[in-house]
Amino acid sequence: TAALSIQGLEKVYGNGFKALKGIDLTVEQGDFFALLGPNGAGKSTILGIVSSLVQKTSGSVSIMGHDLVTDTFAAKQCLGVVPQEFNFNQFEKVYDIVITQAGYYGLTAKQVAAHAESLLKALDLWDKRDETSRMLSGGMKRRLMIARALIHKPQILILDEPTAGVDIELRRSMWEFMKRLNEEGTTIILTTHYLEEAEQLCKNIAIINNGEIVTNTSVRELLSQL
Ligand code: ADP
Ligand code: ADP
């Protein structure tokens, strides 16, 4: 089973703009996959549809073999999503933000406590667990979003521009974290407009432009052609 399978995906926004013009894409389990493309290419639209935040116009999407429309809950169970913008309540405590979705995924209290502690420690946020999120630096907020996305141990982690506007030190530490997670078996899919990020981290890559895939290959192959 592929981690992510997309067929004939199209999106026409409410204003009539066609943002996706028939995307076909397969990401295998264990991959570290980059969706690369300039601003406006359609990357966030693809991730939005995959994470059920944006409604597709046509085509099909399945996650670990679960169709996103007919088997939504099972599909969502397999997925952790890190959006581009912070979207948590600034007055909520760090620990509470991390566990907030746990009920939805049906975790026991014991599992929640164990997952939350190991994630907060791995992401260097354990000491901040009782602080409200507005007290955190930008880098800590990014890491908090990753912790929250992983609370239910999803097989797939999706990140939208994870290191946009992040300083070099934090970028390196996020790269290390993602690499380790991938080595431990999590499939990772990220969007980026930095080729260097894809080069450093990813195994396979799709380049998207104007709502279409223009290249879909391994990073190694792509670099050998430059
Ligand atoms: P849908 O067609 O999926 O229902 P809409 O066209 O209703 O989406 O837009 C959803 C939201 O995105 C609206 O709040 C709209 O203001 C906003 N939006 C509109 N145009 C753009 C754009 N070019 N880029 C980003 N967001 C946009
Ligand atoms: P990327 O993530 O690659 O920067 P997006 O998926 O955000 O690209 O946007 C793809 C195209 O769709 C852009 O031209 C953008 O302006 C447009 N778009 C995004 N959201 C909306 C929306 N809600 N309504 C209309 N157009 C949108």
Characterization of this structure:
This protein has 226 residues and is of the alpha/beta class. Helices cover 34% and strands 27% of the residues. β9 and β10 (212-218) form a beta hairpin. The model has no long low-confidence stretch (mean pLDDT 94). The protein binds adenosine-5'-diphosphate (2 copies). One adenosine-5'-diphosphate (ADP) binds at residues 13-15, 17, 19, 37, 39-45. Residues 4-226 form the ABC transporter domain. One of its GO terms (molecular function) is ATP hydrolysis activity. Keywords: ATP-binding, Nucleotide-binding, Transport. This is ABC transporter related protein.
**Strand neighbour order, sheet with most strands:** 6-7-8-3-9-10
Low-confidence stretches: none
Percentage of β-strand residues: 25-35%
Order of helices and strands: EEEHEEHEHHHEHEHEEH
Average the pLDDT over all residues and give the rounded result.
94
Q: What structural category do the secondary elements indicate?
A: alpha/beta
Distance between the termini: 32 Å
